[in-house]
């Protein structure tokens, strides 16, 4: 290993011009990356971690930023060291993609929707490597095999929208690696992915780094991913580097207060062992109240039996139904008052559709849903509207679920206005009380959604869901888009409200560490069915179904001494949930392995 670092960033300063004058995106950041090393940059949204990486690619100018100071030295393969701050754009075009590769956060926006995957992969090879069409296509096929995409020959001629999120992200990685860059910048490359796909992509990047000696700058806010990947860690806060060290130093002996707070907010898989009930997290700097476990009651609130939801696939000249997507298949469970049942599984397993079917936002095909003695499925539209007072939903993306043109106070008051449950004078008091409940200042009442951060918007969505005093809240990936510390605060808030108001949650998530923290009971979904359900401790500590076991193995743990090896991460590809019109799957049959712990025995297919 050579002593010269591949890249050195010295005293970088980046500013953005706004109407109110310049805003500092990065104030003063210095670090270096050596060959074959992975440096993780961590911090919350707005800490300047993506700005640093876009500056290194000199893409920041296209986003309205200016490099106001500092040096960025990059050691080129041939031609020695250059200062990227001084380099003109013509030479930058040669370096970009050829010597520095970049994996962007959102694979759908990083790919061009009008070109096939094969064309996008071969473009860089033809520009930088001077290959002809046939050579470039052959190399593109090799790259898809390297990133382990199934049926690579077919994928070359497909368009990005025909691939799943995980496959698109692999194509983006293959594009970044096409020219064998010396430095690879990965900006939150696994944030939007499932546990199993994330695990595979991390293993893939680690293997490629070992094989090619590429240096990696890995930007993320997921501390478990850092523990799995990093050699060294740079912690950023408000545009400054506050701490740097090896991955063991940062996790085991953090020095800076901000690093300590960041690590305290990470739910770690396994820390709930031996605890019978969920309890809020102890956060650094929060009021040290006595944290009480949330016991809940034994009284049944929600009973779901045989719930089945399918979507028609239409085709042909007359748009007839040619097949069905079996999204939810014979789902049964019950939920008691004041308790949380989590549904976990990968994208496309049917967990969100299950949540929406229970509220009849999607019409189920069969099954019964009984909420507090009322059969929801049998209700006509008028009665269903009345029943919805008792059941509310918190969606994944708070920006999409709030109205951008309404003030927040009006949005939280809207459910009460629609149902006419409280008088006008009471309404203002109740809205202010709800804002206090979700710990938002009352000055926010007159603001609009775009004036809030993601975590604050999610609190408004929770306040709106609480407006009608519901008995059941369906939280669909309600914290997955939030930063670690904000996520911890919102989870604590949800748990405190549960303890206080006796709320029941149906918590839909793919984050196993969060699920372990909040759940009384867990149901693991695979291809529209629950393959295993039971008390949290039983499912997490004694998983019986092969799919649950594979899922548990894939979860990265926020501890650098417990890294996953590549052999832990071999998954079967998920079969298609689309079946021809006459296909009738068998019923779900379960075996009780312990009291209350059920495992699917019939045609689970895994």
Search tags:
ATP hydrolysis activity, Rossmann fold, eight-stranded mixed β-sheet, cell membrane, alpha/beta, ATP binding, 21 helices, 23 strands, six-stranded mixed β-sheet, 3 domains, nucleotide-binding, 606 residues
CATH-scheme architecture of the largest domain = 3-Layer(aba) Sandwich
General shape: globular
What's the mean pLDDT score?
87
CATH fold topology of the largest domain: Rossmann fold
* Text of the CATH class of the largest domain: Alpha Beta
Region (Disordered): 559-594
Protein name: Glutathione import ATP-binding protein GsiA
Keywords: ATP-binding, Cell membrane, Hydrolase, Membrane, Nucleotide-binding, Transport
GO molecular function, one term: ATP binding
Write the layout of secondary structure elements.
Elements: E1 7-18, E2 21-33, E3 38-42, H1 49-56, E4 65-75, E5 81-83, H2 89-95, E6 100-103, H3 107-110, H4 117-128, H5 133-146, H6 152-156, H7 165-177, E7 183-187, H8 195-212, E8 215-220, H9 223-229, E9 232-237, E10 240-246, H10 247-252, H11 257-264, E11 300-315, E12 320-336, E13 340-344, H12 351-358, E14 366-371, E15 374-375, H13 381-387, E16 391-394, H14 398-401, H15 408-419, H16 424-437, H17 454-466, E17 472-476, H18 484-501, E18 504-509, H19 512-518, E19 521-526, E20 529-535, H20 536-541, H21 546-554, E21 578-580, E22 590-594, E23 597-600
Parallel strand pairs: 3-8, 3-9, 6-7, 7-8, 13-18, 13-19, 16-17, 17-18
Antiparallel strand pairs: 1-2, 1-4, 4-5, 9-10, 11-12, 11-14, 12-21, 14-15, 19-20, 20-23, 22-23
């Amino acid at each position: 290993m050579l002593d010269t670092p591949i890249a050195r960033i010295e005293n970088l300063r980046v500013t953005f011009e706004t109407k109110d004058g310049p805003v500092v995106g990065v104030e003063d950041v210095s670090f270096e990356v050596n060959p074959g090393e992975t440096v993780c940059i961590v911090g919350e949204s707005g800490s300047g971690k993506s700005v640093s990486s876009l500056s290194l690619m000199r893409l920041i100018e296209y986003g309205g930023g200016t490099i106001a100071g500092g040096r960025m030295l990059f050691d080129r393969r041939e031609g020695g060291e250059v200062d990227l701050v001084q380099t003109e754009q013509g030479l930058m075009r040669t370096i970009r993609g050829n010597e520095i590769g970049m994996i962007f956060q959102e694979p759908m926006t990083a790919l061009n929707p009008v070109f096939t995957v094969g064309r996008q992969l071969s473009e860089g090879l033809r520009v930088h490597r001077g290959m002809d069409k046939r050579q470039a296509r052959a190399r593109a096929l090799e790259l898809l095999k390297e990133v382990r995409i199934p049926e690579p020959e077919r994928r070359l001629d497909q368009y990005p929208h025909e691939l799943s999120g995980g496959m698109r992200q692999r194509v983006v990685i293959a594009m970044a690696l096409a020219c064998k860059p010396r430095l690879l910048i990965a900006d939150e490359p696994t944030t939007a992915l499932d546990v199993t796909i994330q695990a595979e992509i991390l293993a893939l990047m680690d293997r490629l780094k070992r094989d090619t000696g590429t240096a990696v700058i890995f930007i993320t806010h997921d501390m478990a991913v850092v523990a799995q990947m990093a050699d060294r860690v740079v912690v950023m806060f408000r545009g400054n580097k506050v701490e740097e060290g090896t991955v063991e130093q940062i996790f085991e002996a953090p020095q800076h207060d901000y690093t300590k707070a960041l690590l305290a907010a990470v739910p770690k898989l396994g820390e709930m062992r031996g605890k019978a009930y969920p309890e809020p997290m102890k956060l650094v700097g929060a009021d040290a109240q006595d944290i009480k476990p949330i016991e809940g009651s034994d009284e049944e609130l929600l009973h779901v039996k045989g719930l089945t939801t399918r979507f028609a696939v239409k085709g042909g000249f007359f748009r007839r139904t040619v097949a069905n997507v079996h999204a939810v298949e014979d789902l049964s469970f019950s939920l008691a008052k004041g308790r949380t049942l989590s549904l976990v599984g990968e994208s496309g397993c049917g967990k969100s559709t299950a949540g929406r079917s229970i509220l009849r936002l999607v019409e189920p095909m069969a099954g019964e849903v009984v909420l507090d003695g009322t059969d929801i499925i049998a209700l006509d539209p008028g009665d269903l509207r009345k029943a919805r007072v008792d059941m509310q939903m918190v969606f994944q993306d708070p920006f999409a679920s709030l109205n951008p043109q309404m003030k927040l106070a009006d949005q939280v008051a809207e459910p009460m206005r629609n149902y006419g449950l409280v008088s006008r004078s009471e309404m203002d008091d109740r809205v202010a009380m709800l804002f206090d409940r979700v710990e938002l200042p009352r000055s926010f009442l007159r603001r609009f959604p775009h004036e809030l951060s993601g975590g604050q918007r999610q609190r408004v969505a929770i306040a709106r869901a609480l407006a009608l005093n519901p008995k059941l809240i369906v939280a669909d990936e309600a914290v997955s888009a939030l930063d670690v510390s904000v996520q911890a605060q919102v989870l604590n808030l949800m748990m405190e409200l549960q303890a206080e108001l006796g709320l029941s949650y149906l918590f839909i998530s793919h984050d196993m560490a969060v699920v372990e923290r909040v759940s009384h009971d867990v149901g693991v979904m695979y291809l529209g069915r629950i393959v295993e359900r039971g008390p949290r401790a039983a499912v997490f500590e004694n998983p019986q179904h092969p799919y649950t076991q594979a899922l548990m193995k894939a979860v990265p743990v926020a501890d650098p001494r417990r890294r996953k090896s590549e052999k832990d991460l071999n998954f079967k590809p998920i079969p298609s949930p689309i079946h021809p019109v006459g296909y009738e799957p068998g019923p779900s049959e379960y075996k009780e392995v312990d009291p209350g712990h059920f495992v699917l025995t019939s045609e689970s297919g895994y």
